[in-house]
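Handout for the seminar on molecular recognition.
Each group receives one record of this type.
Step one: identify the two inputs.
Step two: read the structure output and locate the region that could contact adenosine-5'-diphosphate.
Step three: write two sentences on what you found, then compare them with the reference statements printed after the record.
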Amino acid sequence: MFDPVTDAFIGGHWMSGPTRFAVTNPANGVVIAEVANLGPVQTVEAIDAAEKALPAWSALTAKARSAILMRWNALILENTEALAELMTAEQGKPLHEARGEVAYGAAFIEWFAEEAKRSYGHTIPTTASSKRMMSIKQPVGICAAITPWNFPIAMITRKVGPALAAGCTVVVKPSEETPLCALALARLAEIAGVPAGVLNIVTGTDAAAIGQVLCDDPRVRKLSFTGSTEVGKILYRQCAGTVKKLSLELGGNAPFIVFDDADLDAAVAGALASKYRNAGQTCVCANRMLVQSGIYDAFAERLAQEVGAFAVGSGSDPDTVIGPLINDEAVNKVEGLVNGALEMGAKALTGGARHDAGAQFFTPTVLIDVTPQMEIFSQEIFGPVAPLFRFETEAEAIALANGTPYGLASYFYSQNVNRCWRVGEALEFGMVGINEGLFSTEVAPFGGWKESGLGREGASEGLSEYLETKYLCFGGVQ
Ligand code: ADP
């Protein structure tokens, strides 16, 4: 593992901060580092640094910025093993998943470094013979990014990659649970030649105070946030005062629908991948398994067989499939939802309680006979628990699936091509996996409908979030 970088990074300087805070390994509670604990004063300094760096960075050609970003991408990939070990230590996910995230995270930098060279405007057929019209794309300016702990690298690179490629400068406030990956990324950016002040990392435990400064400062023109819907709504309100551009990637309540005409093997494999990756702690994790009555028992039995065989333990053990949850609060929440369902008549085919691997472990669980009246239907579980709801008709499945204020990910399995089109179009979600449990990639637009958020990350949509359109009208043409 790296000797972790533990100081914050502002204006090209590493800052030890007025106090420090502990980062612990969720697998065993051991303190792995003491990190700089910054507050509002240093957040303003970070915005100052981003402001100072903006003119020169935005004036570079996209190709020149791209060259620097490509070096950063290469350095991240060269350090895959060390970054993965660091991630497993502070976040808990199994090492093989952490390696996957490093590659996934780097891919956003590579892709946007390429894509920003193609941020074309338009020439517009004129409406007056004396005028000529065109539109150009320019960087938004100083951006703020507030990121969560579940993907400590990728949630940063999919904001910072397009922002830097577009010519913006950034202040990142990573999760207090996982600041070490953010700081390691910044160290590699520094080595790659990202100029001082272009990327700033403010680590700290007073997220509300840091967030308030980022939202209130009129120099910050855009905020991109990934996290809970609750905090997203606070930030949405706080950004109204300065009318910032906003990207919000918030909570989900993903339906995973298995129709009677599904390929059972494929549906089970998709459910395992979508539900149990990162111990169920992703915002696109299947949250409600809606299973048609003709295939319900067979699906439940096969799923429980596979889930019951999962190896649970520290992410650093190469055999581990399910690591710890991020903190006590997370385990309490999962336990409460499972107990609530069991008390109302659900049954655990496997799991159903905490795991003796340690305080923050929950046994991978499959619940049957779950009904929409139970709290687990409407809450984001964020743990390794699959609740199976039974339905009879396609219309019922669609109504159940859409019966949530959230609209991030959805999945369904069917081998009927007509049904695939119908259901794919009927689901009110930003992303639909059709006979597929894993769809996240830098080349496709990731984001939610309804209360799951605003904007998209990845793809050309993800770049446009960091670009303003300017219309130029040339008059007096003879
Ligand atoms: P999660 O449940 O995934 O931890 P949160 O929404 O609580 O989701 O946290 C996501 C990010 O938002 C973290 O970086 C956290 O520190 C930050 N955060 C939490 N509360 C606030 C707030 N009031 N203002 C700004 N940022 C916040």
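Reference statements: The two ends are 67 Å apart (CA to CA). The first helix runs from residue 40 to 59.
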